[in-house]
Amino acid sequence: MNQERIQRALRSPVTFSVLAGVLIGALFLVGTGADPLTAYRAVLTGSLGADGIGSTLSTGTSVLGMALALAIPLRAGLINLGGDGQMVLGGITAAVTGLYAPLPAPLTVLLALLAGMAAGAGYAALAALCENRLGVPLLVSSLLLSYPAVSLASYLARYPLKEPGSSLPQTRVLPDGVTLPAFGDSTVTVGLLLVVLAAAAYWFTDRRTAFGYEIRMTGLNARFSAYAGVERRGLTLRLMSVSGALAGLVGAIGVLSFPYRFVDGSLTAPGYTWTGLTAALLATAAPIGTVISSFFFAVLQVGGLAMERTTEVPRELTQVLQAIVIVFLAARLRFPGRWFPGRRLNRRKEAV
Questions:
Q1: What own/partner pairs with CB < 8 Å and gap ≥ 24 does 28-35 have?
Q2: d(C-alpha 37, C-alpha 96), whole Å
């Protein structure tokens, strides 16, 4: 039984896609004159070593948060491309709450997190309403609504909320104590635990509740789920609201962590939304798979910097690896059955 599971995992498109990306990446490295083993060693030590694990976990917090935000609607066949807008809106809302809320610091932090989640949820729900009421496809409405949200946050950071005397487009620093607690001297904050709890809640809902079954059934066959009584419009609204809330939470965590302010472009420049979408696609939106693939891409993102320092190979190669993995995954390629004769024999026995 265990051997059967191992063979099934080895033959899966995900395994094939990752290994194909690694092999083709090695060919790219050879073409640039670099040693693939040295480069990949630099990626691993730079991201998982003592000096890099903190950066990997910090990056992984945002990547996993956005991956979960996009995986939840994707599980039902819904694609939310407005992660940037929902995340930035949650970040600027948390910054405003942190700057002006007349409450003790711990309560202000909690209120800022909730406000960021509410802003993201409301904005994502607007995209769902555009599809439900106006007939605008969710793919289009979520993407187009992202631009005014990012522009609004940029305007607030550059003018009304800008730090006096600063040449950077950033808000004033949050008051003392209005920050997420960090683990020791690292940049890893309690935000990582919040995202992990969100992943656990997603797994429980997906595997142990009737609502999770409705989501999976809709993703597998929307017409069948409609015949079974699943109301598509209500499901879209609920899933988009949860998705936006998680995206807003990621934005709020980014503001309440170092540098403890909203900096225009700091949430969108790293590409957390698209990396998160890639991770969700790689895992086919499965809860545990989304966590693993998010960590995988966080390792690539942080390790790419170490590889660039060690081998002088541009870190953009790691983005090439991500693209190759997705291309192979989209093709749904897998290892040939002849490489696993035992599995083929079992199939013949079952047929008999």
A1: 28/317, 28/320, 29/311, 29/313, 29/317, 32/313, 34/311, 34/312, 34/313, 35/311
A2: 48
**What average pLDDT does the segment 181-208 reach?**
95
113 contacts 252 by C-beta, under 8 angstroms: yes
In this structure, what are the phi and psi dihedrals at residue 116, rounded to the nearest 5 degrees?
A: -60, -40
The CA-based dihedral angle spanning residues 41, 44, 48, 52, taken in that order and rounded to the nearest 10 degrees:
80
Closest CA relative to residue 333, chosen from 14, 8, 4, 6: 14
Q: Cβ contacts of residue 167 below 8 Å, gap of 6+?
A: none
CA 212 centroid distance within chain = 20
Placement of tokens 């009421």 in the chain: 133
Instruction: Work out the mean pLDDT of the chain and round it to a whole number.
Output: 88
- When pLDDT is cut at 50, 70 and 90, the band that residue 332 belongs to is low
Rounded Cα distance, 26 and 90, in Å: 39
pTM: 0.90
Measure the CA–CA gap between 236 and 242, rounded to whole angstroms: 10
Cβ contacts of 271 within 8 Å, gap of 6 or more: none
Helix axes of 13-31 and 316-330: crossing angle, nearest 10 degrees: 140
